[in-house]
Amino acid sequence: MESEQYTLYQKLLEDPSFLTWVKSDFVENDSKWSQFIDEHDDQMDEINAAIRLVQSFQADGSSFIDSHLLWNRIRESAGLNMQSGSSGVKMVLMSRLTWLAAASVVLLLMVMLAVPGKTIVETEPGEDLTTELPDGSTVRLGAGSKIEYHKSEWAADRNIYLEGFAFFEVKKGSKFQVQTKSGVVTVLGTSFSVQDRSGEFEVICRTGKVRVDIAKGDSMNLLPGQKASIEGFTGNLDLETTEEGLTDVPWLQGIFTFENAEIRKVAEEIQYQFNVEIEMEASIGTRKYTGFFKNSDLEMALQSVFWPLNMQYTIKGHKVTVSPK
Prior knowledge:
With 325 residues, the protein is an alpha+beta fold.
C-alpha cells in the first residue's frame, strides 16, 4: 500500500507549477496553490516540508532543480531499496519523519548546483554517490570529488571536467572526454576509473578502450585490465598490466592503496574519506608510506597507516592529531 504522505511530498517536488509558485515568493500560480492548501490543511506538515526544501535550494543559488537527480539522491542517502518494474521504480516506504530526515541529509551532504549552461555535481568528504548523465551514462563520484558538464550541449559534446575520483560507465556514441588538471581521458563507450587528486593521476580501463593524454605530451591507449599513471620522478605516463589484468578498481571497494607516497598525501585522503581534520608536524609529513587503508573504519585506517611508521595518534571528535612516538 502506498503512503499518502510520501506521495504528496514527492508529487509537490516534481510539480513544475509548485516549484514556480515557491520560487516566485508565492506570486505565480497563487490562486491554484492557495486553493490547494485550503483543501489539504490536514497535510500542512508535508506541504511546508516541500516548500522548505525548494527554498533551501534557492538559498544555495540554484537556478533550477533537477527533480530526477534530487529524488535519486534522497533515495540513496536514505538507504532505500529500489527495483525495476514495468511501472518504473518501486521504493520501500518510510515514515514521514524518516523521509524528512533523508531530505535533510541531502541538503547537508550534497551540493548539486545548476548555473547557466553548466551542471555541477559535488560530493562532500565522507560521501559518495552515483549520478546519471543526459545520455544514460553513469558516474560514481568518490568522496570530496566534483564533475562539471554542459547539459544543453551534451548531445553534441560529451565533455566532463573532473576533480577527485570517479568511475564512468559510458553509453556507446560520440566521443566522450574526461578532463582533469593532469590529463584528458577519451573513450567512445566503455567503463573506466579516473583519479586526479593531490598530484596523483591514475586511469584504469575495465572494459572497452581508453586513450589518455597528459599536458607534457605523453599519450597512451589502454585495454581492459591496464592502468596508466604519471610517474613521480619523470612526469611521464607509466603503463601497468598483468597477465590476469587489473579487473578491480580498489577505491570502488573502499580500498585506497599507496606506493612510496608522502604520508601527508595519505593523510589528505583519510580526511576526504572520513570527513575528519588531521594535524601533524611538518617534519613527519614527507615520510614515505607503502600500503593501504579501508574507508569502513577510521580507527583501523589510522592504525594501518601510522602504526607501521612508528607514529601515534589521538582522536577528539572530528580532529586527529598525529605525532612521532
